[in-house]
Amino acid sequence: MRKIAALLILIPSLLLTGCWNAREINELGFVLSIGLDKTEDGFKVTAQMASPETFSKTQSGSGGSQKKPFLIVSSTGKTIFEAIRNMAAISSRRIFWAHIKVIIISEDLARSNTLEIFDFFSRNPELRLRTLIAVTPEEAGEIIEVIPEMEKDPALYLEKIIENESLTGKSYSVMIKDFLEDYLDPNVGPVTSRIVLDKSKEKPVIKTSGAYVFDGYKVSASLNEKETRGLLWIKNKMKDSIMVVYCPEDNKPVTLEIKSSKSSYKSSLNNGIPHFIINVKADASITEQACLTDFNDPEKLNELSKTLEKDITKDIQSTITTAKELNIDFPGLSRIMHRQHKNEWHQVSSKWENIFKDTEVTINAKVNIQHVSLAKPLEPINVQ
Amino acid sequence: MNELPKQIKLSLDLTSNIETIKKTMGFASDVTVREFSISPGIKIKAAVILIKGLVERELINEQVIGALMSNDRFNDARDNIEFFQMLKEYGIPSTYVKEESDVNNILAELIDGNTILLMDKIDKVLIVGSAGWKDRAITEPNAENVIRGPKDGFTENIENNTALIRRRIKCPDLRMELLIKGAKTKTKVLIAFLEGVAKEEVINEVRRRLGRIEIDSVLESGYIEELIEDDPLSPFPQLEHTERPDKVSAAILEGRVAILVDTTPHVLIVPTIFIQFIQSSEDYYERSSIATLTRFIRIMAYFISVILPAMYIAFTSYHQEMIPTTLALSIAASREGVPFPSIGEAFLMEGTFEILREAGLRLPKQAGQAVSIVGGIVIGQAAVQAGIVSQAMVIVVALTGISSFAVPAFNASASGRLIRFPLMLVASILGLPGILAGLSIIIIHLNSLRSFGVSYMEPFTSANKNEFKDIMIRSHWWAMNRLPGYIARRGFRRVGSNMKSGPDNDSK
Amino acid sequence: MKKGKVLINNKHFKDILICIMWPATINYGSGILARNIGRDMWVCGIISVLSVLPFIVIITRIGQNFPGKTIVEYSRELLGRVIGKALGLLLAIYFFLSASSSISMYVHHLTGFLLPQTPFLVVTLLHVFIICYLVWEGPEVIARISVFAFAMAIIFYLLVFAASLTEINIDRITPIFDTGVISVFKASLDTDAFIGFLPIIIAMLLPIVNDQRKALGAAVSGLFIGGFFFILYFVVELMVMGPQVVAMMRIASMDFVRAIQITQYLHRFESFMVALWYWSIMIQEGILIYCSLESFMQTTGIKKKSPFIIITFGLMLIASTYYMGHNDVVFLRLREHVWKYFSLPIDFGVPILLFLALGVKKIIINNKN
């Protein structure tokens, strides 16, 4: 009896269902990167979709056809979502966001209100919050359309070069998740990566250089490479990066690789003026030297360390100076104060914009050079 | 089936008795009658009736006919009755001699292979045991072969089978209880258990369930299995069956009850739990680390064979974000030009594979293997090239099929096959939540299943950590020192303490 | 085969309690708490777990005075027939609504993230069918499945940890007690709205526990382990995403999973996560419906469980879930602002009421002797 009852409930419930959400995998257009530009009355969205033939290992169909390994679709609309839906008029495949890797915003668009963009990207459940964000002074559509030599797919190329921030030490990478955290904090200014198009060669090449700083909801300024490096030092992202310093004796360059770095902070509030002490401790190793100084000698090594310490301090100082000039707390100093002295913080937090430009920052850098791979510099050995 | 047998009486006349017996057997052509006279001096007429093919003829020739024809020990009998008595007591050198007067019992003994000895002027007969027929030799069971372990298997003769068990359990506590089941087949069914170790409730329940069986024929232990199962509608088997005597002996020693059925080599073992279908007797003969590893592999193989096609359908139709980007694009590329949705593809390929599997079983040995493998590869490749299915689907189906062969017990992998199709159906409707719903129904069902009072998922959900020593891992023999409490009486100690050998334990 | 009283042993009891505690809190709870209190929500969790503890002790002590009887049965003795029956009916309705809300949360999960176009009713129908099957099979089966659900929960946490290790930044949750101690204590009442029904569920389940003397220990360890799970989840969520981002989300756990990845090749494993905590929420709903059914049957005196009662319950459950949940704006407001006003009096008031009644009764008996 109860089995009949069970069947009576089960069968209609199965018949009620259809396949509402079923999408065959070959009907989808996998969007891997997207560029946003400003037009007179709205947005222009350029999406780069992966072409499945690029990734399949078997020869399907005609061989020898040089098809482009990716597809570009672009459309316009008053809002971003409308622009995307307008793409359905020209794209036969359903736009599928889940594998998106990079979002590129043009500087014009970022200088006007960006609230809509980030609202769309955090509301849509298909997107990952680990997508990288970059701003570019050119048109975003141009960047997306560049065909890279090295990878089959431009989005992979973009993703990897942005993520190489720590290898060059001159650019910055940020995911939506961390970006949103700074975006929602009224006292901190978020930072994104910066991508430029190097037009000096016959085929334009994409490269990363520097960073952009947001103020509130708009882009306010860009940072050059030195200031970006200072920012990386503050945020503790300089591991595996390099610094070039000059030999104390003959001013030839020496390259040092940073094996590990750690920064710690102390904050205090004196008479309404915030003071910060940033201590940077780094371990480095010599990877290349153009001078013939023998750095196995502890004294010379010491001098070299001191030179590096001075350079680090100069980098960070330039970043802080820029921050104070722009009056945007993008290094996140307010958070440090909040963490360490929450009672005082609650008193001054409403006035932070006014007191930030008077902040005093002291930087102590301590470098320890541990590896000099060769026992002697590259010069003939006197064997006797 | 339940008619009372008619009471037919024997008369005092030999010829009419022979006629009665032959008539009741319908004048069957294999009933042989040999009339002779006993001991030349007395001239008493006698006859033996036997069924050719069921008796051991040498035995009858020597022990009955020969013994009676050529001796004169009975010469001083006064009349037939005394003669009969002397015959019964010391006339026939056989281990089984019985006196009988009811024709129905006589016929039952005749069909059993015994010989009927009739005498003139007596209305009773003597039944002489003489059963012996051509039996299959003891060979390795081909469905359950192992690399290490004894290679004898049960045969169709129940007395051989009990002998094989008795050879391993040489303990007087091993009880064997006989029942006759099947109105027309009168099959011997034997319950074997170890007194004092097996639980009383289980034994009584087995007796009760077997006792209430009323059926006209029992040709195989499978008939009995379906009649005593707790839930015949469930896809999961609740009794285990095997052809290996070492497995049955191990089960009896653990406290389980074995049911042997005549004319079939498959012996039933109750009670059963789910994890038994992942265990094989080889686990206990090889070293414990390799046994643990192969158990894990088997469990994974079982799960793969149940849910892999469903997960493929769910992921490629509903949750494409879960697949890594490059793999998703590869699958998309391989599905270009395929006319069916992935559900249709999956059902098509799975159906084809099932047909291939059935076909492979019916073909003779050598051809069967080749056809299954070649058929699978060729059909798969050809289908891909023709654009009917995609390559990814062929891989999924092949992996599923191979995994289902990795499970040791056939009836468990059959349960996997049954569950796979509904899961694919639900996955195609709702994606991963559909699979979850289907799996919940199966798991709820599994947890509510009981086999002779023991819960089906028993050791996973018991509180005693002692029970876990033999489930997913096989602990070393010196560590499994108590019998599992859900089967046997509690806490029966079976390995002496401190059995692990090592420099301290060994003799100096 | 075994007829007679159904019993579950203590390990199962503990596992059931663990599975009841954590799934709904990680679902809507983190968002609600983050909007309320920000980065101290894990402290709220700790305070709320500790605040439920004395009620568990009280209710176990009361229950042990009436062995073999559930709260509905002995409240009739303690408080008189009329109030006892009213209490039983109230508890039945309360459990029913809690189960409805739980099912709504699960279905929102699915329709919000995994299956956006599927209608609410279809998923609800299928899910309610499974719950009815579960309740029909009885508490013993629920207890056995909870062992499996607990194992799945542990795997879930290990995966979450492994995935978020690269993103954890402990600076995001300091400083502690940012907004002041009093507001943290007030916000912990919000968490109590999610886990406060634990003492009365224990009161309903106590008669069928095997070993009564150790039942209190099992209950307390269940509370602590379950509480540990969701507090740990709050901590990890805060450390990865920061309080502002969590406060923006409706169902924070799914967005949290959107933000972490294990390797590049397992980069979106939300469905996987749902597959792992689904079992715990199934157990939670199963136990709530079972308690509701039991208190209903004990209040009205029906002894036998016939399929019609289950079917009726199922249909009512579908209706109430649809009504409560299909407009998720209304549901969020209900859960965030309205729920605690009627759940907290029941959760905390009923044990205290019974405790006082027991005390009064004992004094009267002592005076008589």
Description:
The complex is a heterotrimer of chains A (384), B (508) and C (369). Chain A has 14 helices and 13 strands. Chain A has 384 residues and is of the alpha/beta class. Chain A folds into two domains: 183 residues, no CATH class; 154 residues, Nutrient germinant receptor protein C, domain 3 (GMP Synthetase, Chain A, domain 3, 2-Layer Sandwich), CATH 3.30.300.210. In chain A, strands 1, 2, 3, 4, 5, 6, 7, 8 and 9 form a nine-stranded mixed β-sheet that branches. Chain A has a four-stranded mixed β-sheet with strand order 10-11-12-13, sandwiched between helices. In chain A, helix 10 crosses helix 11. The N and C termini of chain A lie far apart (105 Å). About 2% of the residues of chain A have low confidence. Helices cover 44% and strands 12% of the residues of chain B. A five-stranded antiparallel β-sheet of chain B has the order 1-2-4-5-3, sandwiched between helices. In chain B, helix 11 packs across helix 13. Chain B folds into three domains: 115 residues, no CATH class; 115 residues, no CATH class; 171 residues, no CATH class. Chain B starts with 13 loop residues before the first helix and ends in a 53-residue tail after the last strand. In chain C, helix 2 packs antiparallel against helix 8 and helix 7 packs antiparallel against helix 13. The N and C termini of chain C lie far apart (47 Å). The model of chain C has no long low-confidence stretch (mean pLDDT 83). Chains in contact: A-B, A-C, B-C. At the A-B interface, strand 1 and helix 2 of A face helix 10 and helix 14 of B.
Task: Describe the SSE topology.
The complex is a heterotrimer of chains A (384), B (508) and C (369).
Chain A: H1 2-16, E1 28-39, E2 42-50, H2 52-55, E3 70-77, H3 80-86, E4 94-96, E5 102-106, H4 107-111, H5 115-123, E6 132-136, H6 140-145, H7 154-163, H8 165-168, H9 176-183, E7 191-198, E8 205-215, E9 218-223, H10 225-234, E10 242-246, E11 253-270, E12 273-289, H11 298-326, H12 333-340, H13 342-348, H14 352-356, E13 360-372
Parallel strand pairs in A: 1-4, 1-5, 5-6, 6-7, 12-13
Antiparallel strand pairs in A: 1-2, 2-3, 7-8, 8-9, 10-11, 11-12
Chain B: H1 14-24, E1 31-38, E2 44-51, H2 57-69, H3 80-91, E3 97-100, H4 103-111, E4 115-119, E5 125-128, H5 158-168, E6 174-181, E7 187-194, H6 200-211, H7 221-228, E8 240-242, H8 245-254, E9 257-261, E10 267-270, H9 288-317, H10 325-334, H11 342-362, H12 365-386, H13 391-405, H14 410-430, H15 432-448, E11 450-451, E12 454-455
Antiparallel strand pairs in B: 1-2, 2-4, 3-5, 4-5, 6-7, 7-9, 8-10, 9-10, 11-12
Helix pairs in contact in B: 5-8, 9-13, 9-14, 11-12, 11-13, 11-14, 14-15
Chain C: H1 10-21, H2 23-37, H3 41-65, H4 71-79, H5 81-114, H6 120-137, H7 139-164, H8 181-195, H9 198-205, H10 215-241, H11 243-248, H12 252-258, H13 270-300, H14 307-325, H15 328-368
Helix pairs in contact in C: 1-7, 1-10, 1-13, 2-8, 3-8, 3-9, 3-10, 3-15, 4-5, 5-6, 5-13, 5-14, 5-15, 6-13, 6-14, 7-13, 8-15
